[in-house]
Structure formats: C-alpha cells, structure tokens
TrEMBL record, chain A:
It comes from Umezawaea tangerina. This is Uncharacterized protein.
From TrEMBL, chain B:
This is RNA polymerase sigma factor (Sigma-70 family). SUPFAM superfamilies: Sigma2 domain of RNA polymerase sigma factors, Sigma3 and sigma4 domains of RNA polymerase sigma factors. One of its GO terms (biological process) is DNA-templated transcription initiation. Belongs to the sigma-70 factor family. ECF subfamily. It comes from Umezawaea tangerina. InterPro entries: RNA_pol_sigma-70-like, RNA_pol_sigma-70_dom, RNA_pol_sigma70_r2, RNA_pol_sigma_r2, RNA_pol_sigma_r3/r4-like, WH-like_DNA-bd_sf. GO terms for molecular function: DNA binding; sigma factor activity. Residues 24-84 form the RNA polymerase sigma-70 region domain. It comes from the Bacteria. Pfam families: Sigma70_r2 (PF04542). Transmembrane segments: none annotated. NCBIfam families: sigma70-ECF. Keywords: DNA-binding, Sigma factor, Transcription, Transcription regulation.
Length: 147, 182
C-alpha cells in the first residue's frame, strides 16, 4: 500500500510539473461573501441538453431558473469573443424590478420592463451570476456558472 | 493550518477566517485544476471553471451538509461545470481557423521533468485509458477521498473501484518498467 502511495505521490508531482496550476489562480480565489438573495433552482440549461459537438444557432445558450412563485428565462449569446449579450424574461413581472449580473470583479444592472423583459450587454465571458431585485419581495439569485 | 481537517477548515471559514479559506483553496487547487483539464478544457476555460468552483463554494459554505466531504463536493462541482463549458465551447467555431491548434490535452512537455523516472511515469500515465487516468489523477491529488466518494464523483459502481484502481496502478507500474527496456 505504501508503494502505491509513493507512486501516486510521484504522479501528483509529475502532473503538477507537466500541467502546473497558473499562479494567478490562487490569488483569484479570494473569498466572495455570499449574497443575501434566495437561491433559485436551475430547471433547464441548453448546455446540458443539446448534443455535444453540434453547433447551435450562433453560440446561444438558454437557461430557466425558478424561485418561489417566479421563473426567469435567460438567453445568452456569445457570438464573438467581445462579450456576452443577455436577454431574459421574468414572470410574473413586478413593477420596479431590476436584474443585476455579477462577475468576479464587476457588476452591471438593467431595469426589468413592465412585461418582464430585460437586456444586459455586454457581459464578460467567465463566471456569471444573476440577481433579480424586486421592490417588495426578497431578491432571488441564480447560482454561479461559466459562460 | 495544514494539519487541520477539511471539516475544521470549513467551520473556521464559515466564521470568516481568511486563513482557513486560503488553506482550503491551496489544498484543493491542484485537484480542481486537474479535474478541469481532464475535461479537455483550454487553460482559460479551465481557469474559469476553477474560479467558478470557489465562487460556488463561498456561496454554499453555510449550506454544505457534510463538511468532511468537502473534496468530493468540490470535485463534483468542478466536473459538472467543466462538462457544461466543454459543451458550450464545443459548439463554437474557432476564432482563428489558421492559428496554431491548441492541444486538447497537456502535451508531454517532458522538458520540465528533471529525471528519467518522472519522464517514464508521465509517458506511462499518458498512455492509460481515460478511466484509469481519471481515477489515478483523483487519488493522487486527493488521498483523503474515500472509495465511495471517488466512485460517486466518477459515476462508477463503488464495488469495482478498488479492483479498477489496483489494475490501473499495475498497468502504470508495468509500463514504467517497460519504458526502461526500450
């Protein structure tokens, strides 16, 4: 068993040398305090259901999140490396709501219109999270995901 | 800090101890990086998956039911995210069709390996099946993971993990030895 462990330790060392962790990753992993918003569940994600290797319609991904009494549909377009365009629909719509996209070092907000539509553009590729803020109801948040 | 268990570190990080958080990251970064790269992600995408995994951990720190299983939780989270990123990026057209292709896997950059034994070990590992590489990568980087956790993360029956792990190690050892004779 010890011989196995020695070999595995040697393997770990070799893997770290051949494909080292980029040094900036440890620094980028600072603690981000959790949001107070209630978490939404991811109901569907086209990245999970679309067959791999099949090119969709221009790098479009659709996701549906649900929270208490609320659904958020999100469509993310990554047509270019310049950024991500997000359009979405909240139902039911609540007057005065805003949607906020967060990434590790930035944030962008947009109003949700009376029908429930919103539009955020441009957003960076990489980890993203969306928070729905409503005047009289608790905030709702998606989990973090990479786009 | 190094001698503390994952469960202790989670408890301290929950109270806002930054040192405990850094130790969690330091302890698991090679494993999480390796999981992301095993999904054949480019460096930039693997870096995004790592960062997303830490963000998800910070968000779930207070909700993780079994802190002792932190390593398994992190690996599962990173694997799910890496597989989604793999599918998203797989659908995109390359930006520069004429640029140099990026290798799908880290190439055998043997120049960084100082001694002959390391080179033989790397060559033998690179020639293993995907399943063997997945298992050995995980048990090499995270010795604390139980067979149950490794099996759950890799979607294998726990009953066969022990024998598969032994077989993979035996093949690895045999091929290392074979390299000597070449």
């Amino acid at each position: 068993m010890t011989a196995d462990r020695d070999l595995l330790d040697a393997l770990a060392a070799v893997l770290d040398l051949v494909d080292p962790v980029p040094p900036h990753l440890a620094e980028a992993a600072g603690f981000h305090p959790p949001t107070d918003a209630a978490p939404m569940d991811l109901l569907t994600d086209s990245a999970l259901t679309a067959p791999a290797g099949v090119r969709g319609d221009g790098g479009t991904r659709t996701l549906r999140f649900t929270g208490p009494g609320t659904t958020v549909d999100l469509r993310l377009d990554t047509a270019t490396r310049l950024g991500v365009r997000a359009i979405g629909l909240v139902h039911p719509a609540v007057d005065g709501s805003t949607i906020r996209a967060t990434w590790p070092d930035g944030v962008r907000s947009a109003p949700v219109d009376p029908i429930g539509r919103f539009h955020l553009d441009p957003l960076p590729t990489g980890p993203l999270r969306f928070v729905l803020r409503r005047p009289t109801l608790p905030d709702l948040s998606t989990g973090w995901f990479v786009q | 800090m190094r001698e503390l268990t994952n469960a202790h570190l989670v408890a301290m990080a929950r109270l806002g101890d930054e040192g405990a958080w850094r130790e969690i990251v330091q302890r698991h970064l090679p494993l999480i990086w390796s999981v992301a790269r095993a999904a054949r992600l480019r460096e930039a995408d693997a870096a995004d998956v790592c960062q997303c995994t830490w963000l998800a951990l910070a968000e779930h720190l207070h909700r993780i039911r079994e802190p002792a299983r932190l390593s398994g939780w992190l690996v599962t989270t990173a694997r799910h995210e890496a597989s989604r990123v793999r599918k998203i990026r797989g659908r995109e057209l390359p930006v520069d069709l004429w640029g140099p292709p990026e290798p799908a896997l880290p190439g055998p950059e043997e120049g960084v390996l100082a001694d002959d034994r390391a080179v033989r070990l790397w060559r033998a590992f690179a020639g293993l099946t995907d399943q063997c590489r997945d298992i050995l990568r995980m048990v090499a980087h995270a010795p604390e993971l139980s067979y149950q956790e490794v099996a759950r993360v890799l979607g294998m029956p726990v009953g066969s993990l022990g024998s598969t792990r032994s077989r993979c190690l035996a093949v690895l050892r045999r091929r290392m030895d074979a390299e000597v004779r070449v």
